[in-house]
Amino acid sequence: MDKKLVTYAKTLRQNMTPQEQLLWRFLRNRHFAHYKFRRQHPVGPFILDFACLRPKVAIELDGGQHDENRHYDENRTLWLESRGWVVLRYWNNELTENTDGVLTAIFDTLRAQSVSHPLKTATMQYTQPA
Question: May I ask which residue range the UniProt record assigns to the signal sequence (predicted)?
C-alpha cells in the first residue's frame, strides 16, 4: 500500500469535518447494527470516508467542493463498483438535516448486501451519540 496514501488517511482521520464526526459517532465500535466500519480507509488509489468491509459498502460525505469534482467522483465510484463495492454518497447538509433518513438508507443497503452472509441478519439498532 502506498505510504503517502496511508499517511494522508491518518491526517484526514485527525481532521474530520463536523458531518464526518456526526456520522462516525453512529458507525464506530460496531454501534450501528454490529457492522464494523473504518473511517478514511484506503482502497486502491482512493481513501473512502467510511468503509464497511463486509459487505463492501462505502459511504461518502460530500461538501460543496464535490459539485466541482463530479467527474472525478463518478470515475472513482465506477472504479470501486467494478471491484464489488456499493458506494453511498450523501451531501453534508443531507446528513445534518435528515440524519435518521440517511442512517435508514445505510442500514437498508448493508442488509441488502448482507443477504449472501447469513450471519449478518441484523436489525436496525444503533447507539445514540452523546
Answer: none
